[in-house]
Amino acid sequence: MSFKEISGRYDGPALETEVLEFWREHDIFQKTLGQTEGKPQFSFNEGPPTANGKPGIHHVLARSFKDIFPRYKTMQGYHVPRKAGWDTHGLPVEHEVEKELGIFDKKEIEEKVGIAEFTKRCRDSVMRYIGDWEKMTERMGFWVNLDEAYYTLNNSYIESVWNLLQKIWDKDLIYRGYKVVPYDPRIGATLSSHELALGYKDVEDPSITVRFKMQGENDTYFLVWTTTPWTLPSNLALAVGADIDYSFCESEGQTLIVAEALREAVFRDIEHSVSKTVKGASLVGARYEQLFTYIEVDAPNAFQVYEADFVSTESGTGIVHTAPAYGVDDLALGQANDLPVVHSVGLDGHFIEDVEPVKGLFFKDADKPLIRLLKERGMMFRSERYLHSYPFGWRTGDPILYYAKNAWYIRTSKFRDRMTELNLRRSTGCPSTSRMAASASGSKTMSTGRCRANVFGARRCPSGQTAKASFTASARSANSKN
After folding, report:
1. What is the CATH number of the domain that holds 54?
2. Over the Cα atoms of the chain, what is R_g?
3. Cα–Cα distance between 443 and 52 in angstroms, integer?
4. What pLDDT band is residue 419 in, cutting at 50, 70 and 90?
5. Environment class of 253 (CB within 10 Å of its CB; exposed 0-12, middle 13-18, buried 19+)
6. How far is 149 from 146, CA to CA, in rounded Å?
């Protein structure tokens, strides 16, 4: 028996090329599929990459993991068909085209470029580097069917998504409601937690304590701390802790209400005396005067004190300003007490016309004029600055707006217990499976769209249409030229 002579130096790339050529010449991938035809099928659904950028070494790592599991299940005797896919929707695609245009403002793109032309540029962009991706995929030995790859911009794919949405709708699992989301007003998009983490900066912001006048009482005020003065025109409620002690403090002819545990920190060197101390529960239901009256609020439950478990005495005054339009806890408290969502800021991040003193201003730019107004009216107790970490859009550099958006949601929370059960049943003690179980147990509702230029973001139904009909019409109109 003779053996092939081994050279003194191992040439890995050359050996890999030989193996790839052997696989290609003998169609090995297809043969593995043929040998398992008729066997139990194992489905492996991968999240397709976006091909409008060149692949990097991190993609090799991710695709290696995606290759290992199908190969392993094939070795166990399963039939494992694998189809490649290309993600052609979303902000990465739009951002690439925005960089080419040198325009990042959504309205400016609509005015100078137009939606049709921008969409065409996006469709062209996603095809730009597919050849590089295919070359990298084959070179690394990732077995996947590239010849029949699916594209998320194709009607066949989009219609399958709408078909699934219709099935979910028929099960009464889709509803319309509000949810507070991190929102970048420049590009008009909601950000994921991953995207949000990319843009934090240390910045100096206002830290103010404001007087809210109690209704029916002379010179009696709730002292309320906030770091977002721009949200005050949308204030609808104040929150207290039911078991927290609150002191009525006499100072300079006024009665000021503050949590007893924070009294010294709030008043500091300001002379005052405590006339009485009560539990927060006794303050619940007390009414106060609307701080800014620029927006008419027709809600009998507005402008009163509510009990909330998120109130603490760690900082502030122990009384929390609540604007359901701009905070997760705020919205939850508002929904629990039938309060409306009142927006003083539009989706473009600028104040609406109704708020006369700051109309048209970007929301963060309105802090200073609103603070000035509060001082002029004698409603400001203390105004300072403080340094903290705040999220900014990693694409635009603009501050993120936490905004209650009215959108379509899927009730994934209805299946929370079942998902947790299945994940725990399949858990092997591996940290990743434990995290999956934890993720399932915390499952909330899922939004159907992130308000991008793709066709998946459901929208308000045109007059005379049902939500389901609107879904179908949206898909057809968005891709009629495909």
Report:
1. 3.40.50.620
2. 29
3. 32
4. confident
5. exposed
6. 5
Specify whether the CB–CB gap between 301 and 225 falls below 8 A: no
Query: Do 318 and 467 reside in the same domain of the chain?
Result: no
Whole-number average pLDDT of the chain: 87
Q: 257 and 373 in one domain?
A: yes
Residue 245: exposure state from Cβ atoms within 10 A (0-12, 13-18, ≥19): middle
How many residues are present in the chain?
A: 482
- Are 244 and 144 contained in the same domain? no
Question: Cα–Cα distance between 430 and 432 in angstroms, integer?
Answer: 5
Opening angle at CA 176, ends 439 and 329, nearest 5: 55
In a domain, 268, yes or no: yes
- What percent of the chain stands above pLDDT 70? 87
Tell me whether residue 251 is in a domain. yes
Which of 140, 123, 145 shows the shortest CA–CA distance to 30?
Answer: 145
* Residues 179, 122 within the same domain: no
* Together in a domain, 136 and 279: no
Residue 42, in any domain of the structure: yes
Greatest extent of the chain over all pairs of C-alpha atoms, in Å? 108
Residue 236 in contact with residue 303, Cβ under 8 Å? Answer: yes
- 341 Cβ partners below 8 Å, 6+ apart? 178, 324, 325, 331, 334, 404, 406
333-347 pLDDT tens trace: 999 999 999 999 999
Tally the domains of the chain: 3
Structure token digits, residue 424? 């725990």
User: Would you say 28 and 22 are in contact if contact means Cβ atoms under 8 Å apart?
Assistant: yes
Flag the least confident range among 102-116, 269-283, 362-376, 412-426. Answer: 412-426
The domain in which residue 95 lies consists of: 12-152
Count of CB atoms within 10 A of residue 31's CB? Answer: 11
Sheet with 189-190, side-by-side order of all strands: 189-190, 174-184, 401-410, 446-447
140 and 259 housed in the same domain: no
- Are 351 and 212 members of one domain? yes
The span from the CA of 291 to the CA of 233, in Å, is 7
Pairing of strands 189-190, 320-322: unpaired
Q: Say whether both 261 and 379 belong to one domain.
A: yes
Residue 107 lies in a domain: yes
